[in-house]
Amino acid sequence: MLPRQSTSNRAIIALSVIAVLFASGYALRHTVSCFLLSFVLAYLIDPCVVYLEQRKMPRPYGILIVYLVIVLVSVFCIIYLFPFTTLAWDSLVRDLPHHVQKGKEIMLGWKGRFEPAYGADEWQWLFDTISTNMDKLFAKLSAAVYAAAANVVFNLFNIILSPILVFFMLYYKRNIAAEIVAWLPAAHSETIRALGREINKSVGGYIRGQLIVSLIVAILATAALLYLGIDYAVLNGIFAGLASILPFVGVVLATIPPLFFAYVKFQSGVMLLKVLASFAAIYFLEGYVVKPLVFKESMDLNPLFTIIVVMAFGELMGFWGILLAIPIAAAFKIFSAHLRRGDFTGRA
User: Fold this and answer.
1) What percent of the chain lies above the pLDDT cut of 70?
2) Does residue 152 sit within a domain?
3) CB neighbour list of residue 146: distance below 8 Å, 6 or more residues apart
4) What total number of domains does the chain contain?
5) Are 334 and 198 in contact (CB under 8 A)?
6) pLDDT for 41-73, tens place per residue?
7) How many angstroms separate the CA atoms of 226 and 207, rounded?
8) Which residues contact 250 (CB under 8 A, 6 or more apart)?
């Protein structure tokens, strides 16, 4: 009875700690967002610093060189890419109500031309329902666009503060790791460290690979939409790259905005087929060419479990939940595999 009570008490304590962490994270979500951004950046930059260390360069100098490269790339982006993207975003915010109104007019035109011989009242109800739901959908979309614009100031604060946090994370990496190791239980220290290395290899490879995949998808989608003459091609391409983070449903989400802007501008079914064909080709290349080359090892996660995890963490943590859901699920899978093998049941 005592061991069972002890296990129950541990489970209750663990759940309580997790609940407190989530509540604290929500209350301090802006601080947590800045920390997560810094941690992910440090995690991605660290292999470059390690590579320079292996070439006999002291770590502080390696960090400074990596920062110099990042500054040069950032200056290039600010001078050549940022103004273009900003103009496109301003145009979208300004013209979105006009596009929405034009879309409604097109739908009302369908309603006027389509007069079925039977069930006219039912069709009338269907069109009215679709029109009402479109109003609600685009009202929420417009509010989301303006809310994103209002968050620019806070995001700029994150961009300014993050490089400082990233520098200290990189500089004190060994001290932080040594402190964490010191707190590990002696009986399982080596097992936990081996588990950490395995998780680091899997999750690190996934995050770096996913960034490469998202960048390739964004470039291909932007190029295709520019060729087809679709409005806001750059913004739609960036959205397609971000949507590729989402498994399975990302393809559908990435295709909807280009289809809307294509039909509002051209009002042609042929253009819709061209957009669909372009995105089908892009995601075919992503799934069968790019990902097999980028991802050396598959995480082999259950598709249903992956979707549920992404939805749950996205609702709890927003963007960061969507980004980190799959790495967290992979880490949990690796941990559960070690637990089933009994790696944590040995005696000191």
Assistant:
1) 65
2) yes
3) 93
4) 1
5) yes
6) 888 889 899 999 998 899 999 999 999 998 898
7) 28
8) 243, 244
DSSP state of 298: -
Residue 51 lies in a domain: yes
- Residue from 297, 270, 318, 268 nearest 30 by CA: 318
* Rounded distance between C-alpha atoms, residue 212 and residue 236, angstroms: 18
Q: What is the pTM of this model?
A: 0.67
In a domain, 85, yes or no: yes
One-letter amino acid at 306 equals T
The 3-state DSSP class for residue 171 equals helix
Contact between 6 and 134 under an 8 Å Cβ cutoff? The reply is no
Each residue of 202-243: pLDDT tens digit?
777 788 888 888 999 999 999 999 999 888 888 899 889 988
Q: With CA atoms as reference, report the closest residue to 25 among 327, 316, 330.
A: 316
Q: Give the mean pLDDT of 93-111.
A: 64
Q: Please give the average per-residue pLDDT across 242-271, as a whole number.
A: 84
Helices (H) and strands (E) in the chain, counts: 14, 0
Q: What is the DSSP string of 200-259?
A: HHHHHHHHHHHHHHHHHHHHHHHHHHHHHT-TTHHHHHHHHHHHTTSTTHHHHHHHHHHH
Amino acid at 258: P
Give residue 142's domain range.
27-183
Give a yes or no: residue 212 inside a domain.
Answer: no
Length of the chain: 348
Q: Token match 């967002």: residue?
A: 33
Radius of gyration of the chain (CA): 25
DSSP percent split of the chain into helix, strand, coil, nearest 5: 85, 0, 15
